[in-house]
Amino acid sequence: MVRDEFNRYCASFTGATHVVQWGNSDVWKVGGKVFAICGWADGDDAFTFKASDIAFEVLSEMPGIRPAPYLASRGFKWLQHYAAPGLSDAELQRHISDSYDMVVAGLTKKKRAELGL
C-alpha cells in the first residue's frame, strides 16, 4: 500500500476526517479520535493503527511491524507497519478497519449519533 491508497481507503469510512500534522503525517480521525496515521520510517511510508490486545501481541513479533513509536511507549496498543514483509495490503486494510471500529466503539452514543454511526 502506498500513501495515496491509504488516504483513499481511510476516506471511505463514515465520519472520517483528515488532518496533516506531526511532521507532515496524514492523520485520520473519527469523532476527533485518531484511528490511523501514515508517516515515515527511514524515508518510506509507515502505517500506524490501533490494535486489539491479541493483535498487538501477535503482530508486534512479525518482521516489518513494530509497536508504534511514541504511542506504544506510553502504554497504548498501537502498531506500525514500517517495512517489508509486514502485512499484505488486504491485511493492513483489515487492521485499519478494526482500528476504526475500536475508536468508534469508544465514542459516546451522542457522538456516534452525530456522525451517523
Summarize the structure.
The chain has 117 residues and is an alpha+beta fold.
Characterize the structure shown.
- The model has no long low-confidence stretch (mean pLDDT 94).
- A six-stranded antiparallel β-sheet has the order 1-2-3-4-6-5.
- It is of the alpha+beta class and 117 residues long.
- The protein has four helices and six strands.
- 34% of the residues lie in helices and 30% in strands.
- The protein is globular, with a radius of gyration of 14 Å.
- The longest helix is centred in the last third of the chain and has 17 residues, at 89-105.
- The chain has helices at 3-11, 53-59, 89-105, 109-115, and strands at residues 16-21, 25-30, 33-41, 44-50, 65-67, 78-81.
Key features?
117 residues, 4 helices, 34% helix, 30% strand, alpha+beta, 6-stranded antiparallel sheet, single chain
Query: What percentage of residues falls in helices of 4 or more residues?
Result: 25-40%
**Strand adjacency order, main sheet:** 1-2-3-4-6-5
Helices and strands, in order, run as HEEEEHEEHH
- Average pLDDT, rounded to a whole number, is 94
Overall number of strands: 6
The general outline is: globular
Secondary structure class reads: alpha+beta
Write the layout of secondary structure elements.
Blueprint: H1 3-11, E1 16-21, E2 25-30, E3 33-41, E4 44-50, H2 53-59, E5 65-67, E6 78-81, H3 89-105, H4 109-115
Antiparallel strand pairs: 1-2, 2-3, 3-4, 4-6, 5-6
